[in-house]
Design brief:
- A hairpin with a 5-residue loop joins strand 5 and strand 6.
- The chain has 2 domains: 393 residues, Alkaline Phosphatase, subunit A, CATH 3.40.720.10; 53 residues, 2-Layer Sandwich (Arylsulfatase, C-terminal domain).
- By secondary structure, the protein is of the alpha/beta class.
- Helix 1 crosses helix 11.
- It is built from 15 helices and 14 strands.
- It is 32% helix and 15% strand.
């Protein structure tokens, strides 16, 4: 293996692990399959929070949301929190990001070039930060009525034609304020102006500009899709067609807490089977865009010979429920939004290997540092390095997997999942016998709860 590895860290937003080729949903992702066939695929990986901002802050710090100061969505990662990006930078790496970071969500201005000073503080040496999907349509207005961009993508649209920016803004405001949450249609913009195509192109340009500049690099290409609004390019929408999907998990609310029942009624009340098929078609088309750029990035590695010294990672910040339990999007602890794709390739891997280790997204922080040969303090992180598993070691990674939301905690031991809602009904599911999480057995297994209690911060 080369002395100093490079890292191509590809992240999607709101994609569940069953969407990967052959994993259950039936979506074609040929380029991700190409990566998977030479990687370790973590089949039970989970996000540390099924919500964008806490999940990404947890990844950056290697700490749970409750420990890194970002337990909610509209937050800013506290400047005193150390990140693994800083450690890589201090270890001599050029550290880039192209796309969504969400590390300063409350302050959603990214600057026309995406290189605000805060990004350098977080450890990036060459940032091109864009907004996430929901914020990509917002534009600033000066007192005289002129427009200014909130980030590089809006700057791109404004330079092409301000009418494009205003058309997208009008469409998203309508989605947020008037249309049902399950509304899904192809983009109102011409295909060549789609956000993830912009991010993919900027990622490829970053590699072409910064590779070979005398330092190893770690580049995060952070796509905004397939997060809603589900508005893929028309060509991708037509290409995926109305393909069949597995039936969603029934919206059986027996044993579910009141807050879940209320969310289901709010999100999918009045939704028809045709509406859900349209959501899934637009989701699959948006995934197709990400997969296409994965292929282009892998092609670049092979064409330049960088495949010989580059670690490639594909992951997501959280999953997507897609109608399971009558829910959409994230912000719950059910499998659809908890389980994330986690695919990790190191130079020399030629075959696929699956691991059912209880991996968590934040584990990628110490893993990258280990593979980069950069020292890190295990006492400062909650995360576990996956490097021993990549080498074929078989010791258990952790006894219990954990994920947090502001109103609940999830604990999973490989069979039983405890969802502890702080002011509502607790849930316990035996995923071995009830993988769809339909039967809450919280009253039947007090011994399981007792075993979990030491891992819960409230007991």
């Amino acid at each position: 293996m080369p002395e100093r590895l490079n890292f191509l860290f590809i992240m999607a937003d709101q994609i569940r692990n069953t969407t990967l080729d052959g994993m259950g949903d039936g979506v074609a992702t040929p380029n991700l399959r190409r990566l998977m066939e030479k990687s370790v695929v973590f089949t039970r990986a989970a996000c540390t929070c099924p919500l964008c901002t806490p999940s990404r802050a947890s990844l950056a710090t290697g700490r749970y949301p409750s420990r890194c100061g970002v337990p909610i969505h509209d937050a800013v990662l506290p400047p005193e929190q150390p990140t693994f990006y800083q450690a890589l930078r201090d270890g001599g790496y050029r550290v880039g990001i192209v796309g969504k970071s969400d590390l300063h969500k409350r302050q959603n201005y990214c600057g026309p070039r995406g290189d605000l000073p805060v990004m350098y503080h977080y450890g990036f040496t060459d940032p091109v930060e864009t907004e996430g999907k929901m914020n990509s349509a917002w534009v600033g207005k000066n007192p005289d009525g002129t427009l200014y961009p909130m980030g590089p993508y809006q700057n791109f649209l404004l330079e092409k034609d301000p009418a494009l920016m205003l058309r997208l803004e009008q469409d998203y405001r309508s989605y947020m304020r008037q249309k049902p949450r399950y509304y899904a249609e192809p983009s109102v913009l011409p295909d060549e102006f789609f956000l993830d195509d912009f991010i993919g192109g900027q990622g490829l340009a970053w590699l072409q500009e910064h590779d070979g500049t005398g330092a190893p690099w770690h580049l995060t290409v952070s796509f905004a899709g397939p997060h809603n609004p589900w508005d893929p390019p028309r060509a991708d929408y037509e290409a995926v067609g109305d393909a069949p999907w597995p039936a969603p998990i029934p919206a059986d609310m027996a044993g579910k807490p009141a807050w879940i029942r209320a969310r289901a009624a709010q999100q999918t009340g009045g939704m028809t089977e045709a509406d859900l098929r349209q959501v899934k078609r637009c989701y699959a088309a948006s995934t197709r865009v990400v997969d296409r750029w994965v292929g282009k990035l892998l092609d670049w590695l092979e064409e330049t010979g960088r495949d010989k010294d580059t670690v490639v990672i594909f992951c997501a910040d959280h999953g997507e429920l897609l109608g399971d339990h009558g829910l959409l999007e994230k912000s719950a602890m059910y499998e659809g939004c908890l389980r994330i794709p986690l695919v990790l390739h190191t130079p020399g891997m030629e075959t696929r290997r699956e691991s059912d280790a209880l991996a968590e997204l934040m584990d990628l922080a110490p893993t990258c540092l280990d593979l980069a040969g950069v020292a890190w303090d295990q006492n400062r992180m909650d995360a576990c390095s996956l490097a021993p598993l990549l080498r074929g070691e078989t010791a258990p990674l952790r006894a219990v997997q954990r994920s947090e939301l502001h109103n609940c905690t999830m604990l999973f031991d490989g069979r039983y999942k405890w969802i502890r809602s702080y002011n509502d009904t607790d849930e316990l599911y035996d995923l071995q016998n009830d993988p769809q999480e339909l039967h809450n057995v919280i009253d039947e297994h007090p011994e399981v709860i007792e075993r979990f209690k030491p891992y819960s911060f409230r007991h």
